[in-house]
Amino acid sequence: MPHGYVITEWTEDQGLVVKLSYPENLEIDLDDMMRIFYAHITGAGEAGNVLVRLEKARSNVSSYFTGMESDMPVMINLMLELGEDPEMFGEAVLQEVNRDVLNYLKQMSTNVSESYEILKKIKLYLKNTLILLDRLKNLSKEQRLAQIYTSEKARTILEALQEKALSRRELQGIIEEKLQKIIPNLEYILDPFIKTGLVMQDWVEGDTDITLFLLTDFAIFRTPVAKLVEDAKKNIPTPELATKYLEEVSRFFTKYKPNFEDNLKIARTMMDPDNYDYITLFRERAYPLNKIPKGPGESIDQIGSILKAMEDDHILKVIRDEKDTRWVFLLTDVIANTFYPEYLIEKIRKDRMEGKLNKDVAIKHLEFLEKVYKK
Question: What is the pTM of this model?
Fold first, then answer.
């Protein structure tokens, strides 16, 4: 589990100072913070991320720096266990956390009189973030597929393996060339591919590097909620609500056209454990707003915030009944659907005929695909 967060700021008069840390008992070595700072400013000192291993603190640090030219040169340091990598949480999640923390810090700098209250909000936010990051280590298969989709690095891996099987070395070279960045820990980016069964790793005779084979592909999209639609056709939960619900579903899917931006949005929703819990809950039935089951420690305000965001994204729909009671329905189910990559068979045959693919690699890939097909 991550140790916590340390936020530091560079000032002209004091140099690097610790702005805040959470939890407050987190031990901070300023020399370590300077090491991270130097890792950032080596070169142009521009905004960006680095991963630094601190032996003394026995910690890996995922650090985001706003850059020396920013109005507020700040480092947001996520202190991890030694050996942990930020890729395990998904880059989109950490980007959102960094963005939110910076917004709080900007509020503090512009509203000095409210800085104490804002500081309390930041600490509460960081507390909830650490809980979220711990939960992200135990995702369902569907969520891991969404994790792949939300990561630019993982999408690049998928696109490369949709073309042909590649050694780890070849794959790393392709990603670094396309994204123009160094990829220090490829195994963490590959982790959701392995755990979901999308990719098989194996040795090919004569090769000195392990080869990665794509065995299953997937797509993310919205779909009507089959159970709720069937219930509505039986006038469940009430004839009036059922009619309104079917009208809303029909209205949405008449105009719905999947696209990358929307798919990315729903993948991020699926990645969030709280959102995913409610999606799973509402797949089974609709609930009156005042009778929605609460999770441990969840407040009414937190539930309202989660539901409102998903309603804005057309995942949930609030419908009033004849007594003006508000019911929450899952308007669109969001799913990550795996499928057999039949397109690879012809591609392997063609690449082999044109001499673009090693014979042993081609045979092994076809053997793996045959086993998957029989299953």
Answer: 0.83
